[in-house]
Design a protein that fits this description.
The chain is mainly α. It has one domain. Helix 1 runs antiparallel to helix 2. It is elongated and about 65 Å long. The protein starts with a helix and ends with a helix.
């Protein structure tokens, strides 16, 4: 249940004012991969694609372009990366997954913008300029990914601790729901 709630939260958060790339998207995808039902891995990807189809033309006033396919593939990859946390979501692994999400999105999305759009020359210096322009966004992305990953993966632990402190018998089942 939490996996679905976190994805809905991530989609809704994108429609609220926030610093660019400071979102719970990567964390929600990682959490869904780790805790959501495998047969429904497509759900968070579809919901985020749907939000892109609304946000891009109507909020950001950009046309849909082929670089979106890179972002959409990244959504799926993050759910799969999260599935590697299913049986071992220790803090170091969560940190690694969160940083992998941040770095991979930075590298892939800036490369896609360089390759698709005419903003930068199709040279190595043009590619370097695209990455350089993305650095301010990367800082927010890393901060958001780390914060939201810690919060989302910490929520079931907190719920379980609260229920155990209250002496409830099914604390493990309640926290995993």
């Amino acid at each position: 249940m939490l996996a679905f709630l976190f994805v809905i939260f991530a989609v809704a958060f994108r429609f609220l004012p926030h610093p660019y790339t400071f979102t719970p998207v990567a964390a929600a995808l990682l959490f869904f991969g780790a805790r959501g039902p495998r047969r429904l891995f497509w759900v968070p990807v579809a919901l985020l694609i749907a939000s892109d189809l609304i946000l891009t033309p109507f909020v950001y006033s950009y046309p849909l372009s082929p670089d979106h396919f890179v972002t959409w593939a990244w959504y799926g990859a993050m759910v799969l990366l999260g599935s590697a946390l299913r049986n071992n979501a220790k803090p170091v692994r969560l940190l690694g997954a969160s940083l992998t999400a941040s770095v991979s999105f930075f590298l892939l999305s800036n490369f896609a913008v360089w390759a698709v759009w005419k903003m930068y020359p199709k040279t190595l210096s043009g590619l370097a300029a695209a990455y350089d322009a993305g650095i301010p966004f990367f800082r927010h992305e890393v901060a958001g990914d780390l914060l939201f990953t810690a919060a989302m993966f910490g929520t079931p632990v907190l719920i379980q601790a609260i229920h155990k402190a209250r002496g409830e018998v099914n604390a493990d089942r309640i926290a995993s729901a």
